[in-house]
Amino acid sequence: MVQTTANQLPRDRRRARIDRGVQAMVTVSGLLVLMMLMLIFVYLLFAVLPLFKPASVDASPALRLNHASPALALGMDVQQRVGYRIDRQGEGQFYRLTARQGQAAGTLLASQRLLPAPTLLARAVGARDLFALAQADGRFIIAQADFAAAPQQKPHWSLPLGAQPQALLPHAGALTQLALTPAREAGAYLVAAVTERRQLLLARVAARQPAAVSAIALSDDVQQLVLAPDGRQLYLLSGNRLARYQIDGTQLRLQETHTLGEQAPYRLTALPGGSALIVHAADGTLQEWFDVEKNQRWRLTPAQQFTPQPAAGAAVIAEPFRRVFAALQPDGAFALYSSIQARPLLHARLAAGVQQAAFAPRGDGLLLETAQGWQQYRLNNDYPDVTWRSLWRKVWYENYPQPALVWQSTSGEDSYQAKFSLMPVIFGTLKAAGYAMLFAIPLALGGAVYTACFMSPALRRLVKPAIEVMGALPTVVIGLVAGIWLAPVIERHLLAILALPLLLAGAVLLCGIAQQRWRPGRLSPGGDLLLLLPALALTVWLAMALGPWLETLLFGQPMHFWLGDDFDQRNTLVVGVAMGFALVPVIFSLAEDALFSVPTTLTQGSLALGATPWQTVARVTLPAASAGIFSALMIGFGRAVGETMIVLMATGNTPIVDGSLFQGLRALAANIAIEMPEAVFASSHYRVLFLTALVLFVFTFIVNTLAEAIRQRLRERYSQNQEAP
C-alpha cells in the first residue's frame, strides 16, 4: 500500500484545485465558443427573416371627399402624405392624406385646371406621376405632379411643354387612343396616338423644339395603345390581335402580330423596366408576355400564366418602378402578384366599388377612390423579387429564352430585373471544393503514407516541416500567382496538363519496375528519390515541350482555341490546382500524424506474421488511422468550401451552373466578398447575401458535425478491434 506523507497532502490538494480550475476554464471556453456560434446563427437569421415575411395590407381611415366629377387618375407622393386626382373636367387636385401642420386629412391643398374636358388620359409607366391629356380636337398637354419639397410651398402641376395644348399633326382629327413614355433624351417625350381616321401617330416632343412625327395607316379599330417604358416598343391591341412595332427614333416598323384567343376583350398593362406585358382577358386570365430571342429574332412570347385567375371585370394596375401588379375586382377582392411567381403574394378584401386605384411610388401603399371618397392602404411587400421558389428553382426571367438558374444582382440600367438564384453560387462552391479535393487527396494522402510508413526518420524530419510551411502561404498570394501566372501556363499547355496525372503515374511505375529489376535492395533509405525525381522532372518537361505540337496535330490549332467559347482562361482547373495546393499541407499534416501515431506493436506484429510492408499499410495502418484521416479530409473540405481569395482571384467569378472543367464559377464566400460592399442596406440584395452567409454557415456546421460523428464511430470501431483478444 502506498503511504502518503504529510508533505504530499498539501501538494495533492493544490494539484486538485489546479485541475478543477483548468477543467472549469476549458468548460467555460467551450460554452463561450458554442454561444458565439449561436449568436452568429441568430444574427444571420435575424437579417434573413424579413425576406420571407408574407405580404400584408393595413387600412387607414377613409377620407370623405366631395368630388364633382369622377377621377381619370390617382396618385400620391413617396411619403404618402399628399394624394392627387385628375378628374373628367381636367382639374388636377391635391389633397392631404395625413393630418399635418394644422391641416386635417382630406384638406384640399391645391387645384389647377390642366385641360378643359379631356377625352383621353395616358399615364407613363416607369415615370413618376407623368400624364398626357388630350382634348376632343386632338390637341394634348403633358402634366406632371410636383410635390414641393419646401414646407411653405404647395404641391402643383408642372407642364413641361407649356400650358397651351398642341396637336401631333395639323388637322389630324380627334384621338381615340393615347400613350406616353419619357424619351431617352432628358426633357423629351414619346407620344403615340390613334386618330379617328385610323391613323397611328408617333411623335417625339420636347419644350421649344419642333415635334418629329411619323404616321402609319391602320386597317382596324384600336382598343388600346401601350408604349414600353424603355421607349423601344409600341403595342397595339385590335380585338384579339396584338401587334408589336419596333421604334427607331420616331419611325415605326411592324415586327409581329399575335392572335390572342377568343376571350376578348383584352386589356394590356405594361410592367416597368423592359418589354413585359400583362395580358388580361375578359374571363380573368392573366398572362405575362415578353420578348424572347428565337432563330436570331426577338419574338413576343407568353411566358407565364398567373393562378388562380381573378374574376371577370377585374382591373389590373402596376407599380411604378417594380415588376409587381395587382388585380382588383369590383367586389373589393384584391390579389397582389410578382412577375417571377405564378401565384399571388397576397389575397385581401378591400373597399368595394372602386372607380380608380394607384400604387404609391415605392409600392408600399395603395390609394383607392370610390363613390364615398378615398381609402388609403399601407402595403408591406418589401421583397417581391425574392421568393423561396426563385431562390432554388428555375425562373423564366424577362427576355430569357427559357427558365434558368441565374444569379445577377446588379446592372448598368435602373430598370434591371435582379436575379437571386442561390443554385449557381452553391454549385460553384461545391464544384471548386470537389476539384480541389480531387487534386489534393492523392498528393496529400500518398505523401502522408510514404512519410509515415516508409521514409527514413532523418528524411522525415526534413520533409514534414517543409510541407507544413507551405500551409503558411497566404491564400491571397496563391490566388494571385494562380490568376497571373498559372492560368496562362495552363492555357498554353492544356493537353499536357490534362495528361500529366497519367504520365506521372506511369513514370513512377516504370521507375519502380526498373529499380526492382536492375538494383533490387541496393538503394539506401530515401535513395529511391534520386531515381524518381529526375524521372518525374523529365516527364513534366517532355509533356510541356510536346504538348503544343500534339495539340496542333490532333486539333489543327491550340486546344483552347478548338474549345472556343467552352474555354475560359480562369477556369475550374486553375482553381482546383491552386486551392488543392493550399489544401495539401492541411490534409498531409493531420493524416501523417494519424498514421505515425498507430502503435508500432500492430505494425510489427503484422510484419512478424509474414505480411509485406504494403499489406501492413493497407490492412493494419490505414484502418487504425482511418478516424484521423477522415478528420483530415473533412477539415480540408471545410476549408475548401469556405475559401475566398483563391476563388476570387483565380476564376472569372461567373455564377453559372456548368460542370465543365474549363468554365469559371463563383463560390458563396467569394460572392459575399465581391457584392457586400455595393449592397444597399436592408435591400433584397443585402438580405440575400446574408442568406448565402447563413447557407454557408449551416452547411459547414452540418458537414463538421457529421464528420465528427463518423470519426467517433470509426475510432470506437477500430479501438475495439485493437482491444479484442
TrEMBL record:
Query: Principal place where this protein is found?
Result: membrane
**Organism per entry:** Serratia rubidaea
* Lineage of producing organism: Bacteria, Pseudomonadati, Pseudomonadota, Gammaproteobacteria, Enterobacterales
Compartments where located: Cell inner membrane; Cell membrane
Q: What is this protein called?
A: Phosphate transport system permease protein pstC
Membrane topology qualifier: Multi-pass membrane protein
* Recorded family membership: Belongs to the binding-protein-dependent transport system permease family.
- Residue ranges of domain ABC transmembrane type-1 in the record: 426-707
Primary gene name: pstC_1
**Gene Ontology CC entries for this record:** plasma membrane
Keyword Transport in annotation: yes
The residues that cross the membrane are: 21-46, 432-454, 466-487, 493-514, 526-550, 570-591, 620-641, 686-707
One biological process GO term for this chain? transmembrane transport
